[in-house]
Amino acid sequence: xxxxxPGPELRxxxxxxxxxxxxxxxxxxxxxxxxxxxxxxxxxxxxxxxxVREGLPDNVRKDVTYRDVRIxxxxxxxxRPGPDxxxxxxxx
Length: 92
What we know:
It is built from 1 helix and 5 strands; from the N terminus they run H-E-E-E-E-E. By secondary structure, it is mainly beta. A 3-stranded antiparallel β-sheet has the order 1-3-2, with no helix packed on it.
């Protein structure tokens, strides 16, 4: 997912936006992680997620210590317009 972070326009116009920055002096995985983000429900096709990483490859290996790690991660979701427009006025 490295380098595929949602662009500034999508982040600006998204109805749902989650951004996080993680820093670590050292990071080690006991197991090789599997991860995925799936947009369901009213998510528009423009929705995306991704990260820009420093010191950490896209495919990490178990029992390897990575040093000076930084991950900038974002999830940006746009909603499909409902009958009354975006979000169609309903809240849960």
